[in-house]
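Working notes for the structural subgroup meeting. M.R. asked for a predicted model of this chain before we commit to crystallization trials. I am recording the input and output together here so anyone reviewing the notebook later can reproduce the run.

Input as submitted:
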Amino acid sequence: VQLVESGGGVVQPGGSLRLSCAASGFTFSSSDMIWIRQAPGKGPEWVSSINKGGISIYYAKFVAGRFTISRDNAKNTLYLQMSNLKPDDTALYFCARVSFTGNVEVGPFKYDYRGQGTQVTVSS
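Returned structure, recorded in token form:
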């Protein structure tokens, strides 16, 4: 299993970024996926989830309509479109594969694999 995030960077408050997560080594189209983030000095935080078919989507409250999760099963890729970014969104963003038997829990989900992360920095 390999998950590789990309698309992070430095943006000003109010700016936008699109994160991508390239998946390989497993049947991506059969897996629910999540985005999580971890800010410096804080624990991991669940951001959003999407089921294998891309129909059931959920967001953490702090997203407040600013982020959109999506997936392209033909390309084995997960996305997170982020807009109206705030300094509090500064964090390392990870994609992870949901697993009910996973041994890592974040928010309402457990996962078994995650990527190395992509850094998002929101600063003026």
